[in-house]
């Protein structure tokens, strides 16, 4: 893979624009940092993924069990969802609507969407 200097990525350490190829690695002459272009692409792809965190900062994943941390009002229900309710088997939504980034089934209420800011990983 031979790239022209215009297409080489900047240094991930110092953002220097004068990187050059040395074998399979890219080298920054300004700070001396060496990196693999494949590793930089993988990091960029990982950074582009949507990371959903709960109210205390834990990273959530599909299938996790979460606990509701505050009582939620539900339209058409006299009681709502009480704080401490466990919700099992959540699914994360990529294109969140109004901040509702968790799709789940709550016992006694059925399918609904929740905001990650009102749950904590159990």
Automatic annotation (TrEMBL):
Gene3D superfamilies: 2.20.25.10, SH3 Domains. SUPFAM superfamilies: Prokaryotic SH3-related domain, Zinc beta-ribbon. This is Zinc ribbon domain-containing protein YjdM. Residues 7-36 form the Protein YjdM N-terminal domain. It holds the Pfam family YjdM. It comes from the Bacteria. Belongs to the YjdM family. PANTHER family: PROTEIN YJDM (PTHR30305:SF3), PROTEIN YJDM-RELATED (PTHR30305). InterPro entries: YjdM, YjdM_C, YjdM_N. Residues 52-122 form the Protein YjdM C-terminal domain.
């Amino acid at each position: 893979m031979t790239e022209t200097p215009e297409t080489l990525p900047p240094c991930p350490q110092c953002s220097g624009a004068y990187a050059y190829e040395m074998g399979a690695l890219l080298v920054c002459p300004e700070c001396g940092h060496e990196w693999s272009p494949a590793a930089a692409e993988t990091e960029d792809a990982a950074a582009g993924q949507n990371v959903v965190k709960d109210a205390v900062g834990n990273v959530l994943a599909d299938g996790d069990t979460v606990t509701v941390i505050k009582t939620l009002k539900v339209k058409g229900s006299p009681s709502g969802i009480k704080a401490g309710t466990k919700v099992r088997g959540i699914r994360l939504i990529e294109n969140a609507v109004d901040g509702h980034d968790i799709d789940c089934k709550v016992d006694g209420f059925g399918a609904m969407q929740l905001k990650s800011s009102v749950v904590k990983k159990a």
